[in-house]
Design goal:
alpha/beta; Arc Repressor Mutant, subunit A; Rossmann fold; five-stranded parallel beta sheet; two-stranded antiparallel ribbon; 13 helices; 7 strands; RpiR family transcriptional regulator; transcription regulation
Length: 288
C-alpha cells in the first residue's frame, strides 16, 4: 500500500527511460502545474535526483505539494519513490566506461563470446531504427526539408555525443555543394560564427539529455537573431524544442549503457539528401 492508501501499480515506471516515455505519453492530459514540474524534471534530472522537495519546488516555480501530486499522477506512493528513479539514472550514467565494458564482457561470457556484444549493438540499432520509422511525422519531415532547402547557409550545432551526427551533416552538405557552417572553433569563436547568421539562413541543432549547455546557449542566441531552427532531440520538454520551428523526437536504444545513434544518423542522412534533392528540383524548374 502507498502512503495515500493506494496499491502500487505494477506498471509504475521503474527506470528513467520508461518514466520519460510515460511522462511524454501523458503530457497533453497533465494539469498545468504538474506539466510544469514534469518539464522541469526531464530538463533537470540531476536536480531532481538529489535536491530537496523545497529546493526543487522553488527552482521549478511550484509548491512542494505539487511534487507529491506529480509523483502520484505517475503511480508512485510519494515523491521519494519517484526520486529513486532519478537517482538510479544518475548512478547508471556515471558508471565508468570500464564498468560498462565489464558488463559487456559478462554478457559475452554468458552467451556466444564477443559475437554477443556485436549482436547486442545490432539489436539496439534495429530497435532505434524501427521506433523512428514508426514515429516520424511526414508533414514535419517535409516542412523541415522545405525550410532547409531555401536557406542561404545551413548552420549545424551539436556537441558531445551528438557531434558525430553534426560532422556527417556538414560533410554531406559540402558534397552536395550546399553552403553550410559547422559551428566549432578551437579559438573559441563560436559566438562570432553564429553572429553572421540571418533569417535567410537556417539551423540544424542536435542535443539529447543531459543537454549540452553550449548547444542550448548557441541555439538560444541564434533563435534571437530570427534564424529558423530544425531541432533533433529526445523530448517535447527538451530546451531545443522551445526554439525550433520544426523538431524531431528521437529515442535511441542502448546496449550495456552505450547508447546508439543509429536513428539520429538515419534521420540526419535522410534530411541532408532530401534537402539536396529539393534544391536540385528547384534549380531544374528555374531553368525550365
Amino acid at each position: 500500500m502507498g502512503a495515500d492508501g493506494a496499491t502500487m501499480d505494477k506498471r509504475v515506471p521503474r527506470d528513467f527511460e520508461t518514466l520519460r516515455a510515460t511522462i511524454l505519453d501523458r503530457r497533453a492530459s497533465l494539469p498545468k502545474r504538474i506539466a510544469q514540474i514534469a518539464a522541469y524534471a526531464l530538463d533537470n534530472p540531476d536536480d531532481i535526483a538529489f535536491g530537496t522537495a523545497a529546493s526543487i519546488a522553488a527552482s521549478a516555480g511550484v509548491q512542494p505539494s505539487t511534487l507529491i501530486r506529480f509523483a502520484q499522477q505517475l503511480g508512485f506512493d510519494g515523491f521519494t519513490s519517484l526520486q529513486q528513479v532519478f537517482r538510479e539514472r544518475l548512478r547508471e550514467r556515471n558508471s565508468s566506461y570500464d564498468e560498462r565494458l565489464a558488463a559487456l564482457r559478462a554478457k559475452a561470457e554468458e552467451g556466444a563470446g564477443h559475437r554477443a556484444i556485436f549482436d547486442g549493438f545490432v539489436a539496439a540499432a534495429s530497435t532505434s531504427l524501427s521506433d523512428i520509422s514508426r514515429a516520424l511525422n511526414d508533414a514535419h519531415f517535409e516542412e523541415a526539408i522545405a525550410l532547409l532547402a531555401k536557406a542561404e547557409t545551413i548552420y549545424v550545432l551539436a556537441k558531445r555525443r551528438s557531434y558525430p551526427v553534426a560532422s556527417y551533416i556538414a560533410y554531406a552538405l559540402g558534397k552536395l555543394k550546399i553552403r553550410n557552417q559547422l559551428v566549432e572553433s578551437a579559438a573559441g569563436l563560436n559566438a562570432e560564427m553564429i553572429g553572421f547568421a540571418t533569417p535567410r539562413d537556417a539551423v540544424i541543432a542536435i542535443s539529447f539529455s543531459p543537454y549540452a549547455p553550449a548547444t542550448i546557449e548557441e541555439t538560444r542566441a541564434i533563435a534571437e537573431q530570427g534564424v529558423p531552427i530544425v531541432a533533433i532531440t529526445d523530448s517535447s520538454f527538451s530546451p531545443l524544442a522551445q526554439f525550433a520551428k520544426v523538431w524531431f523526437e528521437v529515442s535511441e536504444a542502448d546496449f550495456g549503457g552505450f547508447r546508439s545513434i543509429s536513428a539520429t544518423m538515419a534521420l540526419a542522412m535522410a534530411l541532408t539528401v532530401a534537402v539536396g534533392e529539393k534544391r536540385r528540383e528547384a534549380g531544374r524548374r528555374r531553368k525550365g
